[in-house]
Amino acid sequence: MTSHGKSPSLRRRPSLSPGTAMTIPWTRKGVVSMPSVQPWYGTTTSLLLVEAIASIVSCLEWLNLLQEEEAMLVATVESLTQLHE
């Protein structure tokens, strides 16, 4: 019962006995030791990777838009110079 106050997941599940609440969430993820640290670390790392990938994709989309804008500006300048001549 001393581990009952340490882990927040045990406090969220009052209907389960302390033994089942301790084994269900962590053994399903394959975590054996340090159940209160490793799932948090893995989840945070996954979220950081997802955010980094989303940022990279966003930057690539912006670069693509800038290239399209540059091509349109070049075409506009070329057509204006042809009209001026």
Number of strands: 0
Number of domains: 2
Low-confidence stretches: 1-5, 9-14, 16-28
Coarse structural class:
mainly alpha
Proportion of strand residues? under 5%
Largest sheet: none
Question: How much helical structure, as a percent, in the residues?
Answer: over 70%
Q: Give me the number of helical elements.
A: 3
Q: Tell the overall outline.
A: rod-shaped
Order of helices and strands: HHH
Termini separation comes to 89 Å
Radius of gyration: 27 Å
Region (Disordered): 1-23
Topology:
Elements: H1 8-12, H2 18-29, H3 38-84
Could you explain how this protein is built, in words?
The protein has 85 residues and is mainly α. The chain has two domains: 1-33, no CATH class; 37-85. It is built from three helices and no strands. The protein has helices at residues 8-12, 18-29, 38-84. The protein is rod-shaped and about 65 Å long. Mean pLDDT is 69; it is low at 1-5, 9-14 and 16-28. Residues 1-23 are annotated as: Disordered.
At a glance:
Residues 1-23 are annotated as: Disordered. The protein is mainly alpha-helical and 85 residues long.
Notable features of this structure?
rod-shaped; 85 residues; disordered N terminus; mainly alpha; 0% strand
